[in-house]
Records
---
Amino acid sequence: MKHLAVSCLLIFVALLGGATKLNACTSVIVSGKVTPDGRPYIFKNRDTPNQDNLVVSVQGSRYRFMAIVGRQDSLNLNVWSGHNEAGFAIANTAAYNLNGQQKADQPRPNGDEKDGNLMYKALESCATLTDFEHLLDSIKLTKGTLHSNSNFAVLDAQGGVAYYETGNNGYVKFDANDPLQAPYGFIVRTNHGMSGDRSLDQGIERYLAIQDYMTRAGFENNLDFEPIIRKVTRTLTHGLTHLNLWDFAPQDDSQPVYFPFRDFIPRWHTASAQLIQGVRKDEDPRLTIAWTIPGSSLTTPAIPLWITPHGELPQIVTRNSQGHATLVDAGFQLKDQLFPIKRGNGADYINLARLINHAGTGILQQIEPIEDEIFSRAKQVIDTLRKNGKAGRETTEFYRWVDQYISEQYEKRFHLM
């Protein structure tokens, strides 16, 4: 049966050919009405050929914000997800069906930059969903077009959480708090909008995968944030074929074992992931938390980040003296072990033995205990911050610990950093 399953997967990948878009993110928004702690969140798994990402803190015209940006963007003018000190958060996914066939076939680099700059403007100036709507309206009024083809996930400190399917000519709002639009309190988006030309849908396989997880989790009353950033980002079950790569895990990593790796939620093109957890209405908006994987989700742990008055960050997730993020660079080196084939379609084939195996020596299996300790330590700090109602010295101490602990663990386990 295993041989038959592998053959089916190989055929499936071959039939896909070059149809899948490279700018292909996976996202979900969740109302605080259905989360265990009453805090809403938005999530984005970012897929892009521009792999080198990092985290920055920026003092905008009105608000300070924290965001994921591309390393090459030295001025931080294009952000890909983030939140500000008012508790406003935003992320996007490319939607290839909102402006018709002609726009769907065009490359997205210029469109990506416009989306990134729009999110920069939103983070520096918006506090609520209404503010964001006013921003979109003003751009449309001034320029005559929104220059967009995207789903924007937006969250605020008042409990608002919605998608804005945004095309050149306007936007359609989908509210996670509206029981008619989101009967189970969550909404999923990948690379199509429900208000667009459905014959142009992209990202179907990943949509099926995350929709299946969210539906099951909702029925089990388990829409907690932690499994999303830790498990969904690394799910090895294909949304269309339902093949689970854990079923094919080798005994050890002594020999390469290659498997097709196409259109899973994590991909070769996954550059970062971020789950931004909002606050309850009685909490300081500055306690909004960005649970952030700044590189490949298969080789990099998630780290909680929140805004401080002076913009402190762990040093390993932001620009170092060479302009890189140290943790992201280390994750790249590990990803090269997962995808060592550099010619042809090598990015579609993963060395499963180096990812997971029964001996427990896979890269992902060694990342998880590092992350366990980060989450355990973070819980203590976050509980203190929420009790005190604001960020304090605990933040600086935690960020310093993150730098030291992750550096030590990557040196010990992988001889990196």
---
Amino acid sequence: MRDEVLEAYTRQYIEAQRVPEVTFAWQGGEPTLMDLEFFERALHFQRKYARPGMKIHNALQTNGVTLDADWCKFFGDNKFLIGLSLDGPRQVHDGYRKDRGGQPTFERVMRGLHLLQEYNVEFNTLTTVHSLNVPHPLDVYHFLRDEVNSAFMQFIPIVERDNETGYQQGNKVTARSVGGRQYGEFLTAIFDEWVRRDVDRVYVQIFDVTLGAWLGQPGSLCIFAPTCGAALALEHNGDVYACDHYVEPKFLLGNMLQTNLPALVASHQQIKFGRDKLKKLSRYCQKCEVRFACHGGCPKNRILRTPAGEPGLNYLCEGYKHFFTHVDTPMKMMAALIRQGRHPAEVMNLLKKS
């Protein structure tokens, strides 16, 4: 990304905010392939355009392979929140996370993790759930909880289209993709341990979002919201796309050097993209008892047909339905505790007595 694009993005993004705190999210590829000087310039532009009293936050997603003391000191000094990609213990992490030369990366990632901890960098773990680690949910969870000391976890299902373009086309998935039912069983296995011993000690994104649904709150995660369109992607040259899952020609909104970000976000094309998630929800999904929690999931995964032959069923539907049905009772218990002004962690004692 040229400085011209970096400065224009920073200025336009800050100017568009009507809130006192703004977060810049850096992803790639691998963002640390840019040198530290790039991020120092990014912070300079943030300070330059921040309004008085405005707080600026930065979050960066990394595979951890390139982290060294200089990077981690920079992150600590500037209070970056780091998302570290870690798929579990060595044997499952190294299954797919190899470097360009085909060598395993686990040792380098763990070295980076220890440096993050040494420099007191706040981090969470992002675990992709795929064909190799999905049979081992508790091994993955125990590793992240007990060896990594991760207090904030995300479990992201790999549903990867098998085609030549790399775009969201076709209904076949690659061999490393997770199965729909498998993903649901992976989540429920972890949930059953978490809800009995780790509530308020470990935060798992999908569990927090699910509790919000049982409280009647709007979906706080785009994949489980009725509509979408608020998670746009900016490329290095200033091109803006409807979503980071749809960085492909027909979803290009324009270039922010030619059209300001707010105009691109509010464009008819983007509004239609977001509303289509609800508009194209299948009749099968509309009648589903867990629709309030799922809302059909991410449109990129709606590649199956319903039992009646209607297109648009989410590849993960069976897993979502299994998970949301399984957690219904403890979620109702935690929601009731919150409504009574009590702490949801009390659910652990209630389950021991039941």
---
Amino acid sequence: MFAGTGSDVGKSIVAAAFCRIFRQDGYHPAPFKAQNMALNSYATPEGLEIGRAQAVQAEAAGIPCHTDMNPLLLKPQSDHTSQVVLNGKPIGNKNAYDYWRRGESDIDFRSEVCAAFDRLAERYNPIVMEGAGSISEINLRDTDLVNLPMARHAKADVILVGDIDRGGVFASVYGSIALQSSEDRKLIKGIIINKFRGDMRLFDEGRRMLEEICGVPVLGIIPYYKDIHIEEEDSVALARKSFEVQQGKVNIAVVMLQHISNYTDFDSLEQDSRIHLFYTNNVEDIRQADIIILPGTKSTVHDLYELRRNGCAQAIIQAHRNGASVLGICGGYQLMGVEVCDPDHIEGDIDRLPGLGLLPVTTTMSGEKMTRQVECEYGKGYEIHMGETRPFGEAKAAPLLHLSDGREDGYIVDNKCMGTYVHGILDNQAFVDFLLEPFANKLSAAKTFDYQAFKEEQYNKLADHVRRHVDMERFYQILTDD
């Protein structure tokens, strides 16, 4: 288990690296995170929902993703409420206080996540486990499902990951270990210091001191990198994205919705040399974009209301009139329609809101979630959405995509105005080329981009980077000592 001194210390990325390393070394690894809190999710081949990070780690391991890799997923809907997804299926919304108490629930979440781990461990070896947040939240120790209690069930060796870039690494590592019970402290077999900047030799004494005060070996110090690109699911990652227009490329603006979800949909565009992708809710930047993308959202009605309030709705409509393309994905597709209706109050108290009116469709929200992987004429993707969208009034169907199972998806007015429920559609080069066609005058010297080959290259680069800076011989010795 890779556990952390806090959130965003790099646990997910380190776990992905070791999934690839174990695969390279001839093992058959699989990732596991008992409980995940994220709005970036993914549909398994069975049409069930898990956190995006475990899907990425499974890809690094070279295996299909499965709900047993992330049996419990919490998708925040407000500061206090989350949708609970158990074994890939939503089971309702929970207030945070009631969820953490769990006293009144008829579901034994601990038994569920342990059973998922046991099933996974029968099929793969080793299991690369990931903790959540900090392991030292002692006020939540009795209800913790994902850190040291899960490690005890799995009889896992725990490697503590600390982030030296944020400062205070000695206190955070030592404190994280010191606050554990004597039983849990024995499970922590090593320390990895992540995101180191500068001359590594300057930390030689620090490494020795850390080992001395913690009584745990420092297995590696991994330097900060900027030239390896792995999908990240933590919302903290959005803070590092670009937020402004650039000259000389096709500028694509992803509208920053308050409840943005599945923003990993756009990672492929970030790596395409023809494109400059940026995130914004600034009306002037929206007006300057060549292509505007409305992303997924966990709260369509609320974000539609906010787009109208902050002026972005008007900016998007005006930019389209002036020649910009507009693409909506999932919740963004719903926003582009004539109206969004919520008669059963799935998302709140508002019965109906007018949409942006860019597509002649109407959406009715429903409590049933659609999750499945799909194939279309452009390639593969997946659906995760609530609500049904259909042509408005007398409008005729004009599907953007034709799915391999005979269904049709989305709506297209022309090659500069379209929407779809399919996440991952932008990972398919053929669709990106179609999206960029109206801006061919900007692309004469640019090359097309193979995102799948790029991702494989990045997993291998990440594995090489970690191998160089972790004592792999000592690491394997820890795993075999038991």
---
Amino acid sequence: MSIKVSSKLPFSLVAKPTGSVCNLNCAYCYYLEKEKLYPRDPHQWAMSDKLLDTYIAQSIYTSTDPVILFSWHGGEPVIRGMDFFENVIRLQKKYGTGRVIENSIQTNGTLLTDDWCRFFRDNNFLVGISVDGPEHCHDHYRVYRNGRGSFAGCMKGLELLVKHKVEFNTLSAVNDYNAKYPADIYRFLKSTGSRYMQFLPVVEWINREAGPGELSIQPADSVKKAEVTDWTVDPIDYGSFLVQIFDEWVHKDVGEYFVITFDCVLANWMGVPPPVCVSAETCGNAGAIEFNGDVYSCDHFVFPEYKLGNISEKSLLTLMDSPVQLRFGQDKRDRLPAYCRKCGFLKLCNGECPKNRIVNTPDGEPGLNYLCPGFKQFYKHSWPFFEFMANELKHKRPPSNVMKWAESRKKGSEARR
């Protein structure tokens, strides 16, 4: 490949080097059943060296970003083996020609070793480790295929990351069970050394009548009969979860610990692009690529109807800049119901992720986010604090000043009682 072209819009992909293959069997995982899209021997679900070469070359040559980020997900990506990722680094150097290239990998941590952690450190990988809180929270759903909890294995992997000084953050899925333990989870994550936290609400729309070869989890716009799963978080519980963590964070931890949900709200307050797509006005610039080169509109929209094509047949540039993908991204804004457009919190959430827009508005219009009541609860509670932080930033003062302000506000409230 010798001709360099540039994408009209910056984009990135979540790469699945082993497809949906994983050593765990988490009850709430939306990706495990994607194996039904590729009904072959699971041992063949591995990105080939040839396809990897094509993917890395196209990603580098089409990127307009000053920093090119490669994100490796699964399933469990380390199953693909260290040789694969050593080849990743070799190919990035081959095609990068001086470009700034970064790698991140999302792992459940149970397969990490000293060698893996040395590799991540030496090659500047950012490691996202999936941990749902203390043992009773984590093991409620995150289990091995024999039903045994994975907490001990995850903690061993996390300890190795700390030991080898690997940069990491934590991702916690918030489900019907652990949503009731927000303070315990937040304090536990801090105790592990996590300073950057993401709390991902579990919302899955399932067709319980799906046949053996059919996907049971459905996209939001599915016409099939569907309902939320048993492990889906209750909207009010999720709102309370965010409120309780926020209250501790805003009094003690601003500037020391970072919660991506809070970063997004503050960014939208400031009118700057939020760090993740769920809070942006539009999306469509974060696709997913499967082990065989199939590209989908989004990691949460790996369904046949959202397949854009394959990079062995069409370039990433062609697929991600296609009219179909452009419309997918704009639909996030354009298909908001009137109920949302009139909402005073719209600028803070922008309807959140389209995958969660599975309920009707009070007047019967489809497309309302399932978590809407919880988000409203959180935004109403946190509004004055974010308003204060935004004002501090506009005047070039640290937003951490909010901690003293929050404390004085609390004392004033107590004095008036």
